[in-house]
Fold this protein.
Amino acid sequence: MDNNPPISRPLLQAESLSRRFGGLVAVNNVSIDLHIGQLHAVIGTNGAGKSTLINMLSGETGVSGGTIRLDGIDTTRWPQARRARAGIGRSYQRTTIFPTFTVLENCRLTAQAAAQYPWRLWQAAGACTHSMSAAREVLEVAGLSSAAEKIAGSMSHGQKRQLEIAMCLATRPRVLLLDEPLAGMGAEESERMLSMLERVKQTHAVLLVEHDMDAVFRVADKITVMVNGQVIASDLPERIRNNHDVQVAYLGESPIT
Ligand SMILES: Nc1ncnc2c1ncn2[C@@H]1O[C@H](COP(=O)(O)OP(=O)(O)O)[C@@H](O)[C@H]1O
Ligand SMILES: [Mg+2]
């Protein structure tokens, strides 16, 4: 059956997170759980606090209140690099590829950067082989194997976004935070990205912020709806679709189609 609620304990557990910017409360008392094997979508109008929430989970922004636990360990005050090493991966809205390198080299570089220990120089050759196989593996998951030898900068916008996620996967995260990965994509590119997300969520805990409702309802196992920094509903997709508060507050009373 689709959309089974997971039975595992959450891998990432955020409790009562808040973030103030001066007088503005961008995120107000938000709790969210992420599980391996589950894609949790966060939706809401512009300015609802979705990116700020992701930034707090990744460590790019400090919290004003609340706690973030990874595998039961309090990571709330950890800097971003430490959280990344502990398995929290994220993609950015700006593209962060190395444009003159091939697609495969891009993934190998991030795999190597994540695996490298400077005091183990004598293992460099082995690490390189390992990074190469990790890179090929993530390209397969990303559906980019046939583009492995392409120069990254020459790819379409959609493929660059896929590569960016593949590069993140090459660092072997357990949690993947995605902020509007479908932005600016055509139908075919979106389709490829969604197929990729369906594969990736099998083995990762994914948080997806996305405006495209068709996409969200296709891939999400759970949906949290934010309005003005607060969660107004968090439930299975079918229940969100029929939730009156969500329809009124976010969807202007027209049912989600
Ligand atoms: N660094 C910042 N400084 C001041 N205000 C910010 C900052 N980042 C976000 N905000 C404000 O916080 C609110 C939530 O923003 P954001 O999290 O980007 O929303 P969303 O991603 O849902 O569109 C907005 O009003 C935005 O202007
Ligand atoms: Mg945003």
About this structure: Residues 9-87+174-257 form a domain with the Rossmann fold fold (CATH 3.40.50.300). The chain is about 35% helix and 25% strand.
